[in-house]
Amino acid sequence: MARSLGRVCLGFHRLGALSSAPPPPSLLTSSRSVRTIFAPAILGLPSFFSKPRDFSLPNSSWGSEMMRLYKHYNSQCEVEMEGGEKQEGPWQRLPSYNRFLKYATGGVYLSKIIQSKARLFTRNNRDTGATFEYVLFFNSEEQKCVAIFQAGHLLEGPPGHVHGGAIATMIDTVVGAHANIVSGPVVTANLNINYRRPIPLGSTLVIESSLIKKEGKKVFITCKVTSSDGSKLHTDTTALFVSINISHLLLGS
Amino acid sequence: MARSLGRVCLGFHRLGALSSAPPPPSLLTSSRSVRTIFAPAILGLPSFFSKPRDFSLPNSSWGSEMMRLYKHYNSQCEVEMEGGEKQEGPWQRLPSYNRFLKYATGGVYLSKIIQSKARLFTRNNRDTGATFEYVLFFNSEEQKCVAIFQAGHLLEGPPGHVHGGAIATMIDTVVGAHANIVSGPVVTANLNINYRRPIPLGSTLVIESSLIKKEGKKVFITCKVTSSDGSKLHTDTTALFVSINISHLLLGS
């Protein structure tokens, strides 16, 4: 049982539960890259298992502004030293998948999840560009998370503009990922969102979360959504997350 | 221009812009039923136009709890008098569509919207039961809005549970609809959501919003999400909406 749950938790971190959270700090601070850490072989999977699609990588729907910002942060994930050797840079790209544990093996709870049709809310649409296109980067020195987000045409709320709930979804995703890095598995306890300016469909936005403090099981984070050039503030948010024992969720307690 | 915009606004109200808002009070207080008011003929459409799908009506994915609650409120939308005549009851079901203005006619702005692939965020999935299944009812005497919501398997956040953003989306949808009835076209200005208890995927929930006050352009509303029997509180929210001139959004200003 313990072994199964251990694997469940590994998979959980890998796929970013609780608002698409990224891997835990123990993995992020490894000397290996995020991509290497989550290779199927390390999860003990048969080699014939195909690699899951990483939704945080560029696709044909990404516009020029999305690509410009992606390249800006991605180029800082690895830096070349004088001797030509490559080292980790200040930023790390966080991979993103659409379901839990599909590619791992485990016990009865895992089996239930594998059979499930459940998909991560932000990655549930197969049409690239139609809903949430985004990629997250984390900077451990600055304790910041940045997401680049392109809002697709199926996210409409007010005519021609992004639904307030879709914006809240991206905020929860980014601050949830950030809280997960800081504190391991967490759940959202409070989101207080000020909507300052409507967002036209198709926009590319920057979502930046900053750690305020950690107190016991509580993690306090602020988050801003701005236009891609930073000139327009669309929303500002304070968020509270609380650490949980992930097995409680998996066991349905 | 004025005529076109007038029609735009009619369509806007009809399809529930800004968080899937319902028709304005002027239509809701009509002696005709909501269904009759929004018949294509009244919108001046050719008879060969098919009626748009009303997503708030039952489908095969609705579980027994969803159907029980739907029947409970729907039975109070029309009451039979002593002589057998039917009259409006205390509740009104609010229809729900997946795009703006598809079935109306109008000017250049309307034409642009008709050509658009944009779809309402909460109604963008064709697979019934996969994402948001919900129906809204409004009680004008009590100034309350109630939604019955069944959370589909594509709304996952934490493993096996609903994403915090999907819950925020439903809250924004319900309080936005309520604010729209009270004050005409509005946008979300603030959502302050306390997440008290995770929601398992597949759950049927009751979302109830209550008007606190209206001050000038501001509308203050509270909202609770509970289990279908009311025994478990999942979230409580305070929300602020602000009236806008909808033509500003449509004209892209």
UniProtKB/TrEMBL annotation, chains A, B:
<keyword id="KW-0053">Apoptosis</keyword>
<keyword id="KW-0443">Lipid metabolism</keyword>
<dbReference type="InterPro" id="IPR006683">
    <property type="entry name" value="Thioestr_dom"/>
</dbReference>
<keyword id="KW-0472">Membrane</keyword>
<dbReference type="GO" id="GO:0032587">
    <property type="term" value="C:ruffle membrane"/>
</dbReference>
<dbReference type="GO" id="GO:0006631">
    <property type="term" value="P:fatty acid metabolic process"/>
</dbReference>
<protein>
    <recommendedName>
        <fullName>Acyl-coenzyme A thioesterase THEM4</fullName>
        <ecNumber>3.1.2.2</ecNumber>
    </recommendedName>
</protein>
<dbReference type="GO" id="GO:0016787">
    <property type="term" value="F:hydrolase activity"/>
</dbReference>
<dbReference type="GO" id="GO:0005743">
    <property type="term" value="C:mitochondrial inner membrane"/>
</dbReference>
<keyword id="KW-0966">Cell projection</keyword>
<keyword id="KW-1003">Cell membrane</keyword>
<keyword id="KW-0276">Fatty acid metabolism</keyword>
<keyword id="KW-0378">Hydrolase</keyword>
<dbReference type="Pfam" id="PF03061">
    <property type="entry name" value="4HBT"/>
</dbReference>
<keyword id="KW-0999">Mitochondrion inner membrane</keyword>
<keyword id="KW-0496">Mitochondrion</keyword>
<dbReference type="InterPro" id="IPR029069">
    <property type="entry name" value="HotDog_dom_sf"/>
</dbReference>
<comment type="similarity">
    <text>Belongs to the THEM4/THEM5 thioesterase family.</text>
</comment>
<feature type="domain" description="Thioesterase">
    <location>
        <begin position="160"/>
        <end position="232"/>
    </location>
</feature>
<dbReference type="GO" id="GO:0005758">
    <property type="term" value="C:mitochondrial intermembrane space"/>
</dbReference>
<dbReference type="InterPro" id="IPR052365">
    <property type="entry name" value="THEM4/THEM5_acyl-CoA_thioest"/>
</dbReference>
<keyword id="KW-0963">Cytoplasm</keyword>
<keyword id="KW-0809">Transit peptide</keyword>
<dbReference type="GO" id="GO:0006915">
    <property type="term" value="P:apoptotic process"/>
</dbReference>
